[in-house]
Design brief:
The structure is a single chain. By secondary structure, this protein is an alpha+beta fold. The chain has 7 helices and 9 strands, in the order E-E-H-E-H-H-E-H-H-E-H-E-E-E-E-H. It has helices at about 25-30, 45-55, 60-65, 75-85, 90, 105-110, 145-160; strands spanning about 15-20, 20-25, 35-40, 65-75, 95-100, 110-115, 120, 120-125, 130-140. It has a 7-stranded mixed β-sheet. A two-stranded antiparallel sheet has the order 6-7. A hairpin with a 4-residue loop joins strand 6 and strand 7.
Length: about 190
């Protein structure tokens, strides 16, 4: 059994920075809609701002899917604000930037690089009940793609809503799905 798929996210309470304000985000706040925990190593780095911008560029598409994005690093919410103040790219971010300075969330998801105090580049998509539907963990030198994540989110939503059907490779909404049966074994 996979240790993450179907696992419920932990009960948490974290400081966050969003739209030039500090706020507190809890597990209760993220339930009831789809969510993405988008871990990245650190503020004021190299690949991270390109990924956060890519997610921002597709943020409205994620919101149309009833999905909230939560970027997470082991920096404080004060550092998130300083980064937004210093960077025109990060200033554009509209989704919550969660602060995990104790590494509590990163430890739960097993993505903390303890000796660096940073998280791996990891993505966890969870359903409205807070159960993980998919995840991806990259080496920190490998950036992610928001368009592909959006496609995977849509596939996860389809499977969640239509449990008797599955989505083939490269599937997009409106395309054919597969209803598993003995007649299809070895044919596709």
């Amino acid at each position: 059994m996979n240790k993450f798929i179907g696992k419920e996210i932990l009960d948490f309470k974290l400081n966050a920075y969003q739209n030039n304000e500090f706020k507190i985000i809890t597990k209760k706040d993220v339930l009831g809609k789809w969510g993405i925990f988008f871990f990245y190593p650190a503020d004021f780095t190299f690949v991270c701002p390109t990924e956060l911008k890519d997610m921002q560029d597709h943020y409205e598409d994620f919101k149309k899917e009833n999905c909230e994005i939560y970027s997470i690093s082991c920096d404080t919410h004060f550092v998130h604000k300083a980064w937004a103040d210093a960077s025109d790219t990060i200033k554009q971010i509209k989704y919550p930037m969660l602060a995990d300075p104790t590494g509590e969330i990163a430890i739960f998801f097993e993505v903390l690089i303890k000796e660096l105090g940073q998280a791996l580049r990891a993505t966890f998509v969870f359903n409205p009940e807070g159960k993980i539907m998919l995840y991806e963990i990259n080496s920190n030198g490998i950036g992610r793609n928001a368009e592909e994540l959006l496609r995977k989110l849509r596939a996860a939503k389809f499977v969640y809503e239509n449990g008797d059907q599955v989505c083939p490779a490269h599937w997009h909404p409106g395309e054919n799905t597969i209803k598993p049966s003995i007649d299809l074994v070895g044919i596709l």
